[in-house]
Amino acid sequence: MRQSQSAVMERGVDLHSVHETEPFEVAWAGEARWYVQFLRPAPGSRVEFRVQISPDGLTWIDHDGVEPVASEAVGMLSIPVTGIGHWLRLRSEQTTGDEAPMLRIYLELKE
Amino acid sequence: MTTPDVASTAAGLRDAIRSSDLRLSKFNPLPRILTFDDFNQGAHGWVELGGNYNGRGDLDSMDEHFRDFRPPMLSNQSFFDVGTHGGMTGTYSLKLATRNAPGHTATAIRRLTMSGRGLLQIEAYIAWKGEANLGGGEEANSYGDISWDANSHPTEAQFGAFTVATDLSHDGIRYHNVMRFQNADEDGRIIQKWMYPTVAEPTPHERFEGKHDYGRYADFTAPDPKDWTYLNDVRQEACYNEVPTKVNWHYLRFLIDTKTRSNVELQFNNDTYDLRDVPVPPYAEKYESLESLLNFYFSVRTLGPHRNFLFLDSVVISTDW
Which residue of A has its CA nearest to B77? Predict the structure, then answer.
């Protein structure tokens, strides 16, 4: 049976411009999936999500295999990720809109 | 052969078998092992401590200081300078990581129930770390009591505290056995002493009744520093090993007695402390729905704007019942 873990990275964070999830070690996992729920939507906004990777949990670059995902800050979205290396985080950036949405962010991992 | 001889022989045989087990021989468990977790096959039921929420699943109903204890993660300890360090047993350990916010606490809890009353022990091999810093100016070479001298490293002073504790209840009486290693204060002054709280942990029900309302970074175990007492005046030196990317595992053993709801003993590396005079304050209020509660938790708390980490390589919970 495959090992798995669901980590609730944020329970309700106000997105003020840019938010980065805490560094998470994922060396054991073969695949990941982010879920983002807009607990407080901000319709009319544009939020861009980037999956980022790191060799040490200190320095980060965009994942080379995952294109940025754009959202209108309503509902829920997910981002599947493979080739995740040892560290993973999700960067959220509100590029347009005045009202700050509130996010719940899950990270799901499987061997 | 008399009955005591049979019991003695059985105990001797049990000890011989355990001491020849490569994974268990580094522990000194009581006769019945309830759990053995080396974290090479997952988190084994150690989960982020969550607060209590209402019937709608509304997390706004949760105590602010219970909302963000962070999910534990499996770590192979990969660092910027040496690559993968690995664990004491196998590749992985369980890692608790705080945010870089003063007062933030990360917690992992294991939830069981009691099938008996008596001695109860948790043993673990642990390591704690500040976060490695890369870059910055000369100011990065000093923090609190420590300036880098190629022996001591300022990140050691950036580590606040770790705690091993219980959450227990039987016969309607709920109580916590708690021991904390306070490494440094909020100014980075080295303390390195064991301490314990003299009050019971604030409960969500008390907040519900309007008796308190703590902020996000309050110390959930006992928010008022005046409610903590040092075990003794002796500095408990440990092995940080000069930089935050060298890992040496420390042995920790905490023995309590649920029959008498008391502390018994704490062992840390080669030092053993008699805890029988250390109080275990019960809640005045009787509890329902928690009968035979048997929880253990570890937590790590930063006091400055630095992530703090606690690694658990393996943990054994054992009893004499």
Answer: A25
Give the closest of A24, A58, A59 to B73, CB-based. A24
Chain B contact set for A89 (CB, 8 A) = none
The interface predicted TM-score (ipTM) is 0.97
Hey, are the CB atoms on A11 and B97 less than 8 Å from each other?
no
pLDDT reported for residue B3: 67
**Cβ contact, residue pair A3, B76, below 8 Å:** no
State the number of CA atoms in the 13 A half-sphere of B89 facing the CB: 22
pLDDT at B60: 86
Q: List, in sequence order, every residue forming a beta bridge with B184; answer none if it has no partner.
A: B190
pTM reported for the whole predicted model: 0.97
Q: Inspect the interface and report whether the beta carbons of A9 and B48 lie closer than 8 Å.
A: no
Residue A62's DSSP bridge partners are A52
User: Does the CB of B61 have a partner CB in chain A at under 8 Å?
Assistant: no
Closest of B130, B148, B149, B144 to residue B302, by C-alpha? B130
By CB atoms closer than 10 A (0-12, 13-18, 19+), residue B28 is: middle
Cα–Cα distances in angstroms (integers) from residue B233 to residues B3, B69, B192, B236, B245, in the given order? 45, 30, 10, 9, 29
B chain contacts of residue A27, beta-carbon cutoff 8 Å: 74-76, 78, 84
**Which portions of chain B are predicted below pLDDT 50?**
none
Residue B25 CA from chain centroid, whole number = 22
Q: What is the model's pLDDT at position B242? A: 95
pLDDT of residue B2: 60
Query: Would the CB atoms of B73 and A7 count as touching at under 8 Å?
Result: yes
Residue-wise pLDDT for B27-36, tens only, equals 999 999 999 9
Task: Look up tokens 């000369």; give the residue.
Answer: B138
Paired residues of A6 in beta bridges: A108
Q: If interface means Cβ-Cβ distance under 8 Å, which residues of chain A face chain B? A: 3, 5, 7-9, 11-12, 22-28, 55-59, 86-87
Q: How far apart are CA A79 and CA B211, in angstroms?
A: 43
Measure the N-to-C terminal CA separation of chain A; round to a whole number of Å.
9
Tens-level pLDDT at each residue, chain A (111 residues):
999 999 999 999 999 999 999 999 999 999 999 999 999 999 999 999 999 999 999 999 999 999 999 999 999 999 999 999 999 999 999 999 999 999 999 999 999
Shortest CA distance from B47: residue in chain A: A7
Instruction: Please answer yes or no on whether A56 and B43 come within 8 Å at the CB atom.
Output: no
